[in-house]
Structure formats: C-alpha cells, structure tokens
Here is the input.
Amino acid sequence: MRVFNRIFMILLLAGLFVLGAYVVVYAFDLFGYKLQSLPVTDFAKGLENFVAGVEGGSLSVMTQIILVLLAVLGLLWFIAELRPGAPRRVRMGSGTYVTRGVVEDEVSTVAEQVPDVLGSSVGVKARRSPGAQVDLEARVRRGEDLGTIKSGLQSTVQQRLSQKGLPVRKLNVKLVEADPRQTKARVQ
Amino acid sequence: MAALATEGVYSLGRGRYVEAATYEGGEKVSGVVVTPEDLEIHIVARYPLPKPIPEIAEDIRERVATEAGGRKTMVVVDDLEVMGDEGL
Here is the structure.
C-alpha cells in the first residue's frame, strides 16, 4: 500500500505542478496565452449542470453507478490505510526478535541439507503475533515422489527451527521439478 | 560488554533497517538503543548456535539486568555469523 501511495502522490504532485505552470503562463499572459481564452465558462457551466442533476436526483444510471463505485473505492482505500503495516522483524515472544534474513538463512540451510533437495528459495513474512510465515520453494529432480519429499521436508524444517527456537506459524512448501544442470547442487 | 560476553553472541549488530546505536556525551555506542523505558540490544549470533535463540536472549537479559535500570530489555538478532566464514 505504501508503494501505491507513493506512486499516487508522485503522479498527483506532478499533475499539480503542470497545472500550476499553466496557471502562471495564463495569469501573466506569457507566450501569447491569455486567461480570457480559457474555456472556463464552459467547464463551470458543465459542473453547475452536474451539481444541479445530483441535487435534483436526475442523474443517469451510469453516472450513479460510477459515483457509487468511487465511494466504495474510497472506503476500501480508507480501510486499507487504517490497517497497520506488517512488522519487519519476526517476533519470538518475550521481547526477542529476529530479522527475516536470519530465518531465511536458517530455512534455506536446513532445506538444502535434505538429500532430495537440489536448491531452494525462501520468503519470510513477519506477523504481528509471534512466529513467521515461511514460503519455501524447493527444487527437486524430475520423477521423484513429491508427496514423500514434501512431508519429509516440512517436518525436517519444522523440527530444526524449533530446536533453534525460531518460531514458524505457517510453513508453505512448494516443490518444483527442475533440471539438475540448472540447480545450485546437481547431486546431494 | 555484558551482552558480548554471552555464549552464542558473535558481535553486536548494527540494525538491519535503521542504525541501532545510542549517542551520548559525544560518543556513539553501536548495537544498543537506550530510551527512557526500553533497552534494545542488537546482536549477531554465532552459528551453529550453542543453544536456542530464546535461551541466548534470556542469558543476555540476565547479564544486562543490573545495567538496564529497570528498562524493558528487547533482544534483536540481526544476523548469524557462520563460524569458518569469518573474514570472507
């Protein structure tokens, strides 16, 4: 959401800057542009008709739908803004925290010690409650028994992390069949 | 110093996202953030870990308790230093 806000604000401010430049040019009659030549009266008349239509309840169905959609969009945006952002560090409880990088390194190390895993990539999301959400993608040779590897990998990672005291709230394991020539390790 | 002497602590961390340091009297102490209510200690843990991280954190809390002045102590593990990789 923060990235979206940043992009939105940059575009809004850029638009305001351009409008401001136009206002200065027209206000001081620069480069042959005059304030009187702007079609302001047409715009003002159109706006007046629109407001009169809203007050009189005589808007077209399409306009009403657009206005309702804008209101809903604004409400959703407002709710999204009120939600606090995800924490950056993984909470372990009782005032102890680890950075996501530490959990990623540990999960990656453990996963790559499993004989069938040729390579891995790990994503860790911190949560407000203790424990992290770990998304582990492990690359395995084609034709292996994926179900057995997945359950074995899941239990090994859970066990090793709990031994180290790293709390994992949710562990998602995804196995990807890969060509050993393109993985980190060809043989385990 | 008390935190550094704890088993499993390789060094004090510098903070991952913002610098973890305290400035006072023209001096800068890295790895420790002191506020009136809280004490935040950033560490780099030695790997393989001699004990689970919560136990290392508890040892640090016990060691610094006398100097914490009643502040709530938080321990943040910034990184792991794999033994044998030093200087790489």
